[in-house]
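Quick one: structure for this chain?
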Amino acid sequence: MSKVAYTIGTLVNDWGLYDQMLRSMRKRGFGDDCEFITIDNSVANQGDGYAGLNDILNRASGRYVILCHQDVELVDDGREQLDACLAHLDAIDPTWALAGNAGASRFKHYHLYISDNFGARLHTGMPARVYSLDENFIVVKPEARLSFSRDLAGFHMYGPDICMIADVLGWSAYVIPFHLVHYGKALTGKPFADSKAAFITKWRRALRHRQMQTTVTYMVLVGQNCPRWYARLKQRWLRSTTRRPYPRQP
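Got it. Here's what it folds into:
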């Protein structure tokens, strides 16, 4: 078993903010059995929310990996509370792979346990299963072998991206009652819009209807929200129009 309990990984472009975050982590129990990995973007971009955090995940040796912003601060909850939250997830859902403090489960249905520029928002009903997580604080379970998309870049939408990947691989994500303060300004603008557009394009292609030929059979794969009869009808049509049907087992 790894001797490192937590790896805390951060993209840094302001070392003053990072030092504040680091001090609060140390004060709240993330001590000598934890490792801190940074990517220095203070002079030039050395890694973004996709390639940069994938690098951190690859280098991490902790039992759990915390990917957090430089502008967060622990003010009341700490190591003991996080240990308890993750142990509870292990008990209720061993397939969990991601945990955070803010996310959403469906359209306009948010689950939040955070203080930020909008105030303290400590929702009840935690832990709550979600399908997206905010990037300010995400715990990753390394055994799930998750990563961020290779074909996306930037500093936005990587939280939803890794949640999508986890869901496709059969893992789950939760918002947990672990409180901290996030000092980010929640700015969007053109970089956010560009990242959102790229995210939609990538996942639209990734979740497209597929025709799959193996060495022994042929399948038409469609989404769950598409009627099964559509897949069967399309498969029959393809069989009737192909000159060389797939080989049968002897």
